[in-house]
Each structure stands twice: as structure tokens, then as C-alpha cells.
Amino acid sequence: MSEGDSVGESIHGKPSVIAAFFTRIGQVYQTWLDKSTPFYAVRWASTLLLTAVYMIRVYILQGWYIVTYALGIYHLNLFIAFLSPKVDPSLLDEGKLTHNEGPSLPTKQNEEFRPFIRRLPEFKFWHSATKGIVIAMICTFFDAFNVPVFWPILVMYFIMLFCITMKRQIKHMIKYRYLPFTHGKRTYKGKEDTGKTFAS
């Protein structure tokens, strides 16, 4: 088949060789993601290891502080979304949202228990955080991203931003009485089933 025939096939709706290759790569990537879903401990351990490698690389190279700062801000935003409920209770209080528009947290003592639904699920949090580290690592191979900056100022600004953001988030948790780390539905202990049966 000539090059012209290949181009002609892609024009008439048939996928080209390059498109088929990237489609196959995407399918393999998605398959590995699906397989890794239940192994959250392994996933997060590999991400922490990748983070350590990135930090060591930045320390040895003594540069790319702007990239590291942007990565920290990105991870902070992901973490806040991970801690936040899918439906913000403050929007219900302000009348901008109704209970019928989605699941919400119970706001009264006698309301039915509902599990905490995150704005950003754990798997998406991990996937986005890992992709951010990989992109930051790639940036360290290009001098264009090595902008000279006085890094202690960035560290102090990030710490201040982190404290302010977390303080606001904790106040939000206390005000609307929710914990982002509850698992499953509340269970109640009753009489234990011994498994014995009594003959009549």
C-alpha cells in the first residue's frame, strides 16, 4: 500500500495506522488502570516513591523550583477536592441548590446516615497526582522551565497558603459536621448469632 492509499483510507473514515496505534496504547493504559484500582496501598506507595525520586532530582540539580511550586499548588487543590463533599452544604443553606439535585450530607441528628461522597474520588485523586508528578519530572529535562527564583520565598508562601486553606476546610467540616474519612454504612451490634438451632 502506498502512502497516498493510507492517507486516502483515513480521509474516507477508516482509521490510519498511527490512529490505531494510539488507540491501542490508550486501551492498554486503561486496562492497567482498571487492574490497579483495588490495590490502593501499592498505588500510593509507588506515587510516594516517584515523589521522592522527583524531590531528590530537584535537590541534586538545584533548580526547577517554579515547577515544584506549581506541582505543590496542584496537589493542594486535589487534596482539598478529595476532602470536600460532592454537594457543598453551604450551597443548600444559601438556596443555590436543592436536596433533589443530588445526594447530600445529613444536617440534623435524626436524619438517615449517608456515606460521605467526595467531590474527587480516591482513584481520580491518585491518578491526577501521579500524572502531575510525571509531568513535573519531564519538565526538569528542559532548561526553559528552570526559571531563577529565590526558593525560600516560595516555600514560605506555600506553607502560608496551605495553613490558610486547611484552616478554612476544617472550619467547613466543623460547621457542617462531616468527616471525610468514614467508610461504609454505620453498623449496630445486636445479639450474636451462635448458629445453634433448637429442636422442637
UniProtKB/TrEMBL annotation:
Signal peptide range: none
Keywords, sorted A to Z: Membrane, Transmembrane, Transmembrane helix
Source organism superkingdom: Eukaryota
Membrane topology: Multi-pass membrane protein
GO biological process, one term: retrograde vesicle-mediated transport, Golgi to endoplasmic reticulum
Pfam families tied to this protein: Rer1
GO CC entries: endoplasmic reticulum; Golgi membrane
Claim: Ligase is one of the keywords in the record: no
InterPro entries: Rer1
Annotated localization: Membrane
Annotated transmembrane regions: 40-60, 66-83, 149-166
Family note: Belongs to the RER1 family.
Role summary: Involved in the retrieval of endoplasmic reticulum membrane proteins from the early Golgi compartment.
Protein name: Protein RER1
Organism: Menidia menidia
